[in-house]
Design a protein that fits this description.
The complex is a heterodimer of chains A (148) and B (83).
Chain A: H1 3-32, E1 35-38, E2 40-41, E3 53-56, E4 59-66, E5 69-74, E6 80-86, E7 92-96, E8 98-99, E9 105-109, H2 112-115, E10 122-131, E11 134-143
Parallel strand pairs in A: 1-11
Antiparallel strand pairs in A: 2-3, 3-4, 4-5, 5-9, 6-7, 6-10, 8-9, 10-11
Chain B: H1 2-32, H2 34-38, E1 41-42, E2 45-46, H3 47-77
Antiparallel strand pairs in B: 1-2
Helix pairs in contact in B: 1-3
Classes of the chains: A alpha+beta (148), B mainly alpha (83).
């Protein structure tokens, strides 16, 4: 092994690590850039029975209600989550959700169950979930099914 | 003296080529162009992802031996090779 091979072998890892660090900065900056993603319901949504999944590419959000505790469960860890219950006059009441044991689960006591306790009841809802600069938003209806 | 300068200029040119290739495969293919390259699949892998994970490393190793080989030829050309 001559001097040029030795020199190249010494320099290559430095450049590789330099590239890794530069890439990390770039990706971090990209992640913090503000972007909005529209989520759509995977199928008909019934929050009371836990059959409510919102989708935006790889990101999934499941919304369910357990005795008045409305909870969301996401495939990626969230920074914040806000739920809006929209009444018949299109007035929205916001509920800032609080993190459960992990950033994958967020919850808050809401009057949703009491509002749509009867089979066939519907309610308009909105949600904003943030991950760094990404905002995942959705407006959807939950309809109480026969198992609610 | 002129030969030394020529040797050094040629060396710098090789280093510059290596750095450009290093930048293109790691930052260019692995990040800047990752989305269009991911449209291409080789052996089931998205090409942009492959460059970010493995391809750039293979290229770095290739560059080591390419640079070494070119420098050895340059040494011979300028009659300064080892041993």
């Amino acid at each position: 092994m001559n001097k040029h091979t030795k020199l190249a072998l010494m320099v290559a890892p430095v450049l590789a690590i330099g590239g890794y660090i530069a890439s990390d900065f770039w990706v971090e900056e990209q992640a913090n850039a503000t972007r909005i993603f529209q989520m759509t319901p995977e199928n008909s949504c019934d929050v009371l029975t836990g059959n409510c999944v919102l989708l935006a590419e790889d990101f999934k959000l499941n919304i369910f209600d357990d005795n008045g505790k409305t909870t969301i469960n996401s495939t990626f860890p969230l920074d914040t989550a806000t739920l809006f219950l929209v009444d018949k006059n299109d007035q929205a009441t916001s509920y800032q959700l609080q993190m459960s044991d992990s950033p994958y689960y967020w919850y808050r006591q809401t009057p949703l169950r009491a509002t749509i306790s009867q089979v066939g009841d519907t309610h308009k809802m909105r949600i904003i979930a943030t991950i760094k600069g990404g905002q995942y938003i959705s407006e959807f209806y939950t309809q109480t099914g026969s198992k609610g | 003296m002129e030969s030394n300068q020529s040797y050094w200029q040629e060396n710098l040119r090789l280093i510059l080529i290596c750095l450009v290739i290093w930048f293109v495969v790691s930052f260019g293919f692995g990040l800047l162009l990752v989305e269009p390259l991911n449209e291409i699949r080789i052996g089931g892998y998205k090409l942009g992802f492959w460059f970010a994970q493995q391809g750039s490393i293979y290229t770095f190793v290739g560059l080591v031996f390419w640079y070494s080989s070119k420098m050895n030829k340059l040494d011979k050309k300028h009659d300064v090779e080892e041993g």
